[in-house]
């Protein structure tokens, strides 16, 4: 995947775009678009779905459905970050949610169970002679 992204960036360099990023009418922020349209502008989701995502699914022999749509990719992204231990607050910001509570309610079913993490954390602390707790 990294090699494919590198090739894409070599063929289609990022394009700087300045938009009110945080909210409509908010202060403008300049970011580099890694994926952009033929005229070097941001691609809206409908255009991306119609012109890129659905043809890619078709070429791969996958039928377009809710389960294979861009929203499913968003859920995949969220689940990967949660499984890697990313905080709900950070994920909320990455997904553009105004409230981390909404993110938690939406993606809580994707979060790995905490029992194993809890056991590993305690085992790690108790199994290590220099665990930093001496000054606690």
Automatic annotation (TrEMBL):
One of the Pfam families matching this protein, by short name: Phage_integrase
Keyword tags: DNA recombination
Coiled coil stretches, renumbered: none
Keyword Hydrolase recorded: no
All copies of domain Tyr recombinase, residue ranges: 1-123
Region (Disordered): 115-136
Domain of life: Bacteria
Protein name, UniProt field: Tyrosine-type recombinase/integrase
Organism: Micromonospora maritima
């Amino acid at each position: 995947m990294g090699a494919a992204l590198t090739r894409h960036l070599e063929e289609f360099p990022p394009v700087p775009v300045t938009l009110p990023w945080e909210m409509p009418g908010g202060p403008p922020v300049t970011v580099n678009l890694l994926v952009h349209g033929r005229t070097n502008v941001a691609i809206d989701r409908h255009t991306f779905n119609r012109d890129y995502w659905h043809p890619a699914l078709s070429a791969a022999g996958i039928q377009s459905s809710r389960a294979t749509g861009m929203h499913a990719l968003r859920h995949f992204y969220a689940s990967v970050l949660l499984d890697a231990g990313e905080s709900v607050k950070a994920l909320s910001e990455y997904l553009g949610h105004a409230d981390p509570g909404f993110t938690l309610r939406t993606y809580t079913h994707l979060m790995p169970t905490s029992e194993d993490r809890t056991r590993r954390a305690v085992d790690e602390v108790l199994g290590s002679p220099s665990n930093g707790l001496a000054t606690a």
